[in-house]
Amino acid sequence: MARTKEFDPDAALQSALELFWQRGYEATSMADLVGRLGIARASLYATFGSKHELYLKALERYGEQHGPGIAEELARPGPALPAVRELVARFAEEAAGDDLRRGCFVTNTAVELAPHDPAAARSVEDSWLALERALASALTRAADQGELPAGRDPVALARMLLVLMQGMRVVGKAGPGPARLRDAAEQALALLE
Description:
Blueprint lengths: L8 H15 L6 H8 L3 H8 L2 H16 L1 H7 L6 H16 L8 H8 L5 H27 L9 H21 L3 H13 L3
Pfam families: TetR_C_13, TetR_N
Keywords: DNA-binding, Transcription, Transcription regulation
Protein name: TetR/AcrR family transcriptional regulator
């Protein structure tokens, strides 16, 4: 007869996400995970696989928690440009107000693992592509509705905003102060006028 799990895998995954997000992949040991999750190493391996597999599952969970709302915000009916502006401004404020300096888990993964980890790189690219597509769709709608000046390329603008927003998360994690982030957001948004 199979033994039942003596822990909640969903809660354990959330705890692992928080630990990886706070410390990063390399700085988080299996001993750290065992201690934080409060489960035996064998149970951790049996449920989630390797540390790498657990990290990728935590990254997927992060995307499920933080990604879908953005696309919905940008797809709301009505003028599209205000939603884009609000999103960029929110990224700047969140980056400036990140007292724990955790940054964005996806951006952290891009910096730490993506250059040498194909699975992590794919996950990062999927996340960024979803954001880029949502921005491009909103900016295309804005152009169709006459909110953008003629001749602006919605896809190129979406890519520029994606790069800016991810950069704001990196700069915010370093903690230089909110003025740099707000100024960058304002200057980027001026390109939409």
